[in-house]
């Protein structure tokens, strides 16, 4: 659209040129007016000076005529009326030279050379001459009076000649001044015109030439743009007549309708295979109403599918009124094909991510925005419409205990360019836990600043649980091997030693050895039985589960340990009214609660009577059973918490027993798909919490 901006600039430039020309014409007119006024004043002065000289000449002539007639009338009876008339005329025209309000006199006052005193003398002689001509006895003047007439006439003529000469000199100087003034005015006017040409008209001419050249270049450029493209470009007026078009449109229409289109032809007056005349009119009307828009067409041409994009734009005149519309037609077949292939690839990618339960992400660090694939929202169990995809939002989803490790991995990725490879837990919207495997890479700017990260996240809950289960089984196997190497090997070594010291025939010695051998064999047998029980508990069929009455279980346990209760004076309190029924294997519940209650009695405090509370309560997702005591308690370190439930682990190192109770209880609880936890405070007591999920409690 560059040419449109140039056109606007030209319009503004020509407007400025018009204003400049008007200003120059006004300035020239003013300058010419000043010169004309000066020249007019000068010419008037010349005219007035000539009139002054002429007036002076007539006064001289009439003064001579008056004197001559006075001489002539002597001794006759001629009338003196002519003399009086001439004297009056002489007086009247003499006043012309003396009027102070006359323009001639004003000019003379500015340039005269001593004419004031001469004029006064001329006036005196004029008055003398007129007074002599006005005497009553003009026919009989005395010799003295005639002599006065002669003297007044000569003096008047002499001074009048002097005055006329003075006027003549002034007139000549005025003519000379006028010539200089005309020449100076003409020269200044020429200089003014030259300056005006160089400062104003020449730049204007250059601007006009440049604008005309630019317009020509724009025409060439527009034609080049219109012609050097395969896109169809045409314009239609409000009567749907073709205003202009490029060769691509003309060739396309010639191929379509079988003839050449001409400017001015109605574009609705012929049949068009791909768009009906009604639809074409509707689109033109829409653009002519002032709405720019785009439409896509799909049709078959020469046996192949063609996609075309038409872009309609209204055309405005200088008054912002719509006069026509332009249309741009572009073949987008390749674009549409590529887009459909991308959509198809995107669909395949989504299907692959859904099958593998894997999603991809991209983190723009400048905007702090994380874009997720659709599948990734499913992995994280989040709504794309409401989830805030930022780093902070992601951290809220990650399991609290894994956040620090995740942050360290991200920092190493950004500062050390290490690849991101971590398995961590996330919290779903229902507060359940899911494991994900996250891999990613950071990308940096030229200055080393991290710009973004990209990666994938795959849901690996089953794999991770299987790995943890394998790890657990591996640890149990190690524990089993340890037990074999210590608890079984020790009795066997003892037996070997006893057998070695048996002496045939030495009945006394053998009698002492045989009881020891029996005790050792019993110990070995019990160890093997414990191992067999522990291993057999791991293979429980859920079909063996049934409803269990906890009240019955607790009464049986109380009967079994009645002697321990009596000897320790223990007080056992039950609160199972809120959840009196459990689901599982009755013997397991008996053994679990038996071991926990018996341990509470064994590890009682010497400072107070044992007080044991057993309570159950329903929870949103199952059942919880608590066994609380006020015994000696213990200091639970992280390591000790793990060893409490190990095989042959003990609550106290000073107590007797094989240490199988808690291990078997934990094994039986897990066999019924439950879990056990312990909280204890040294010197205050211990609480065991048993949790069973509700899917093992069918309706």
Task: Please supply descriptive tags for the structure shown above.
single chain; 699 residues; alpha+beta; five-stranded antiparallel beta sheet; 18 helices; 17 strands; 58% helix; disordered N terminus; disordered C terminus
Q: What share of the residues lie within helices? A: 55-70%
Q: End-to-end span in angstroms?
A: 76 Å
> Can you summarize the main beta sheet?
5 strands, antiparallel
Low-confidence stretches: 1-9, 100-112, 653-658, 695-699
Let me know the average pLDDT. Answer: 78
Q: Tell me, briefly, the overall form.
A: elongated
Number of helices: 18
Compact summary:
This protein has 699 residues and is an alpha+beta fold.
SSE order and pairing:
Elements: H1 2-73, H2 81-98, H3 103-111, H4 115-133, H5 143-227, E1 232-237, E2 242-245, H6 247-257, H7 277-288, E3 293-301, E4 304-316, E5 322-331, H8 333-356, E6 358-364, E7 369-372, H9 374-379, H10 391-397, H11 400-415, E8 420-427, E9 433-444, E10 450-459, H12 461-501, H13 507-536, E11 546-549, H14 550-560, H15 562-568, E12 571-575, E13 581-584, H16 586-602, E14 611-619, E15 622-629, H17 638-644, H18 661-671, E16 674-681, E17 685-693
Parallel strand pairs: 12-14
Antiparallel strand pairs: 1-2, 1-5, 3-4, 4-5, 6-7, 6-10, 8-9, 9-10, 11-13, 14-15, 15-17, 16-17
Helix pairs in contact: 1-2, 1-3, 1-5, 2-4, 4-5, 12-13, 14-16, 16-18
